[in-house]
UniProtKB/TrEMBL annotation:
It comes from Rhizopogon vinicolor AM-OR11-026. It comes from the Eukaryota. Coiled coil: none annotated. One of its GO terms (molecular function) is metal ion binding. InterPro entries: DIOX_N, IPNS-like_FE2OG_OXY, IPNS-like_sf, Iron_ascorbate_oxido_reductase, Oxoglu/Fe-dep_dioxygenase_dom. Residues 182-294 form the Fe2OG dioxygenase domain. PROSITE patterns: FE2OG_OXY (PS51471). Keywords: Iron, Metal-binding, Oxidoreductase. This is Flavonol synthase/flavanone 3-hydroxylase.
Length: 332
């Protein structure tokens, strides 16, 4: 089979989701999610200046001494995804069916990255873990504002587009009704520079092949690159998803694939080190994913239109909270 081409979905004319253009954009998005599980988004309404500013805050944050960053430590519980995690703290786990039960397979080598996780400020169950304001003045306000910007795009355009494209009841409001009180996660990621020989064998990358496990992910990349997507699903062959100026990357998560009865694909992806540029060092990389999940306590069954007598439901109803916690705990 030929390599996949990751499509570009343009939200320029989505407006409030009530126009024929919005329905067509939704159909394009769903087609991308069915065939690839990934798409580039253009004209999201997320200001590019705010994106660039958030990357600058990320550089400032990760350039702090380790003892300073540890003033905002990630809690010991894996599901409390907030605050700073140092290099080697997290191991991305891939969940597989074996054959009827879900088993977590850990990598032998921890991911060579560090991260800082932020959620909504008014979440009673999972509080944010911030650095003291005097350590990095303005960071808290900037990170919270960027989280809110991503959240606005999710609720006003992304989830409505998916709902319209799937033809769900209630027009563009269906999926949004399941994401009103979500515990989403904005993650600042830093992959430190390393000597070329660390990656020379090709056996080690920056993050091993995995799928995300919520509703979906919006990803902002710097210009270093390294993201790769499996093509076609299950083949073991990966194609590059390079940064495209003015776009963000979107991918489906495992929970939405389950929710859609496997109508939409949660595709394996990984981050590899860029080619040797002759300096003997692999450049550092920054990225900012925004992970979306449904409201914790709502019992979720198969989406309407994604099952019938000829295509019965594959999965039992489940709450997003139980599913996400299981997956987060597998990473720590």
């Amino acid at each position: 089979m030929p390599d996949i081409v990751i499509p570009v979905v343009d939200f320029a004319h989505f407006e409030d989701g009530s126009s024929p253009d919005a329905i067509e954009i939704g159909k394009q998005l769903v087609q991308a999610c069915q065939e690839v599980g990934f798409a580039y988004f253009r004209n999201t309404g997320i200001p590019q200046a705010q994106v660039e500013s958030m990357f600058e805050w990320s550089r400032k944050l990760f350039s702090l001494p380790i003892e300073t960053k540890m003033l905002a430590p990630h809690p010991k519980e894996g599901w409390k995804h907030r605050g700073y995690s140092g290099v080697g703290r997290e191991q991305v786990s891939q969940m597989v069916f074996d054959p009827s039960e879900l088993a977590a397979i850990r990598k032998q080598t921890p991911d060579f990255k560090e991260s800082f996780d932020v959620g909504r400020d008014n979440c009673p169950r999972v509080s944010n873990v911030w650095l003291p304001e005097e350590v990095l003045p303005g960071f808290r306000d900037a990170a919270s504002a960027f989280y809110n910007t991503c959240r606005q795009f999710e609720l006003e355009k992304l989830l409505p587009a998916l709902s319209l494209g799937l033809g769900l009841p209630g027009g563009g409001e269906f999926l949004g009704n399941y994401h009103q009180d979500a515990e989403n996660q904005l993650r600042l990621l830093h992959y430190p520079a390393m000597p070329t020989e660390v990656f020379a064998s090709g056996e080690r990358g920056r993050i091993a092949a995995h799928t995300d496990f919520g509703t979906g992910t919006i990803l902002f990349q710097d210009d270093v690159g390294g993201l790769e997507v499996e093509s076609p699903r299950g083949s073991g062959n990966f194609v590059s998803a390079p940064p495209i100026p003015g776009t963000v990357v979107f991918n489906i998560g495992d929970f939405l694939m389950r929710w859609s009865n496997d109508t939409l694909k949660s595709t394996l992806h990984r981050v590899r080190a860029p080619p040797n540029d002759g300096t003997g060092m692999i450049k550092e990389r920054f990225s900012i994913p925004y992970f979306m999940s449904g409201d914790r306590s709502l019992l979720v069954d198969c989406l309407p239109g994604c099952w019938d007598e000829d295509r019965p439901k594959k999965y039992e109803p489940v709450t997003p909270g139980a599913y996400i916690d299981m997956r987060l705990d597998a990473n720590y």
